[in-house]
Amino acid sequence: MSCWMPGCPGLSMCRGLSTFPITCLERAKDLKTRLGILLHKPELGHRIRTSSKLQLGSRWRDSSQEVLEWRESFDQLLKSKNGVTAFHTFLKTEFSEENLDFWLACEDFKKTRSKTKLASKANRIYEEFVQTEAPREVNIDHETREITRKNLSGATSSCFNEAQAKTRTLMEKDSYPRFLKSASYQDMTKQATSRGTSKRSHT
């Protein structure tokens, strides 16, 4: 056997660990530790992925009925966190997610109690979503846009009510029906229905 680590003289002559130079043993220990880490990384990754899949599966079982309720009304969809997430993903495919983001921003805005924060939040929302040529301008008429602009002078929790209502109506009449007909939602309802059928057959 030849020496496989630099700086370890006469390793081939060693008959026991007690005769190994200290530096050689330290290097061997360090190498073993590093190899152990590398060898266990894929296994760790596999455990994490498996755990995530199990948790996701559990969540889906619990929300099967919820998925079917989304088609009952737009309100039912908006009440569901999973529903909002699924609808947002769909809107991204149509490049119109700013409508839902604006609606959600307005919902959060209404919960603000500090007058100082209320004013600063109102300006941020207006600049991002409402003003003409805003980075994420929502589709509302000029009159509603102007009313909202004037409301900013004395910002209250209701200053976006009209613009939010117009955006909600647009989503309900336009995007929501297309979401219900989309392949992604149809797949979800099929899975939810099959899980419900399977659950009943086992009871």
Automatic annotation (TrEMBL):
Q: Where in the cell is it found?
A: Membrane
The RGS domain extends over: 73-189
Q: Does the keyword Cell wall biogenesis/degradation apply?
A: no
Annotated Gene Ontology cellular component terms = membrane
The membrane topology term of the UniProt record is:
Lipid-anchor
* Region annotated Disordered, chain positions: 182-203
Question: Where does this chain mainly localize?
Answer: membrane
Record's SUPFAM superfamilies?
Regulator of G-protein signaling, RGS (SSF48097)
- Indicate the transmembrane segments per the record: none
* Composition skew (Polar residues), residue ranges: 183-196
The molecular function GO annotations come to: GTPase activator activity
Q: Which Pfam families match?
A: RGS (PF00615)
What PANTHER family does the annotation carry? REGULATOR OF G PROTEIN SIGNALING, REGULATOR OF G-PROTEIN SIGNALING 16
Q: What does this protein do?
A: Regulates G protein-coupled receptor signaling cascades. Inhibits signal transduction by increasing the GTPase activity of G protein alpha subunits, thereby driving them into their inactive GDP-bound form. Plays an important role in the phototransduction cascade by regulating the lifetime and effective concentration of activated transducin alpha. May regulate extra and intracellular mitogenic signals.
- The protein here is known as Regulator of G-protein signaling 16
Identify the species of origin: Crotophaga sulcirostris
